[in-house]
Amino acid sequence: MTTHDDLVTQRDEAERLQAYYKNELERQRVMNTELRKAVADMARTFQETLAESVAAADSGDIVEVRRIAYANRNAWQAYLQQIVTAAKASAKPE
Q1: Of 8, 38, 55, 64, whose CB is crowded by the most CB atoms within 10 A?
Q2: Model pLDDT for residues 4-62, shown as the tens digit of each residue
């Protein structure tokens, strides 16, 4: 038979776990929001630069194609860094 102290201890542990899981859920929500934003930004940039590079290629402007390609590479690197930063910020504290 469990004693009153055991029940109090179990209740306290359950409350502690509930608070932990609530905080963990919020942390995951924040991370997911950041990741969704980064992915949406990447997709939008990709579509825009693809259209720009196709137009430049159709017009025969190889210099513009190169400029767009370099700008696109830089944008992808920035977005990937944004994803890495969001993932690190939401990593479980030790």
Answers
A1: 38
A2: 889 999 999 999 999 999 999 998 898 888 888 888 888 888 898 889 999 999 999 99
Which ranges of the chain does DSSP label H, i.e. alpha helix?
Answer: 4-58, 62-89
- Separation CA 87–CA 94 (nearest Å): 15
- pLDDT tens digits, one per residue of 22-36: 999 998 898 888 888
- The domains of the chain are located at 4-89
Could you tell me the pTM of the whole model?
0.59
Residue 91: DSSP 8-state: S
Q: How many CB atoms lie within 10 A of CB 90?
A: 16
